[in-house]
Amino acid sequence: MLEASHNNELPVIPGKRYFTIGEVSELCGVKPHVLRYWEQEFTQLQPVKRRNRRYYQRQDVLMIRQIRSLLYDQGFTIGGARQRLAGDDAKGEETNFKQLIRQTISELEEVLEVLKA
């Protein structure tokens, strides 16, 4: 498990459409039961549920990483993080876009390395 100070060392999000709870757990450095609990606490987090299974999309993974950062790195409580996410929708979207841009740059750098080889 990653420590709170290692949020920048989270793995790159693969270019998939849907992720299982186990995959999201590894991508975000939190256990599956924590993800299920966060779904109850944060209305912004709503994975697709089919046949009693959860399927997360890229924006869900980014939201989970943002929640993880608020709780583990910045020291917010659940209630404080909920208020921050609800009150800072514009800023939250900006953060998501920044994360998405960083992710895209990283993926393009990987493609460049493959092309150079």
TrEMBL record:
Q: Which PROSITE patterns match?
A: HTH_MERR_2
Fetch the Pfam families from UniProt.
MerR_1 (PF13411)
Q: Where is the HTH merR-type domain?
A: 18-87
- InterPro entries in alphabetical order: DNA-bd_dom_put_sf (IPR009061), MerR-type_HTH_dom (IPR000551), MerR_fam (IPR047057)
Name the Gene3D superfamilies for this protein: 1.10.1660.10
Q: Where is the signal peptide?
A: none
Molecular function as annotated in GO: DNA binding; DNA-binding transcription factor activity
Q: Does the keyword DNA-binding apply?
A: yes
What keywords were assigned to this record? Answer: DNA-binding
Q: Give yes or no: UniProt keyword DNA-binding.
A: yes
Looking up SUPFAM superfamilies in the UniProt record yields: Putative DNA-binding domain
Recorded hits in SMART domains, A to Z, give:
HTH_MERR (SM00422)
**What PANTHER family has UniProt attached to this entry?**
BLL5018 PROTEIN, REDOX-CYCLING DRUG-SENSING TRANSCRIPTIONAL ACTIVATOR SOXR
Give the protein name, as stated in the record.
Answer: HTH merR-type domain-containing protein
| Organism of derivation | Litoribrevibacter albus
Organism lineage reads as: Bacteria, Pseudomonadati, Pseudomonadota, Gammaproteobacteria, Oceanospirillales
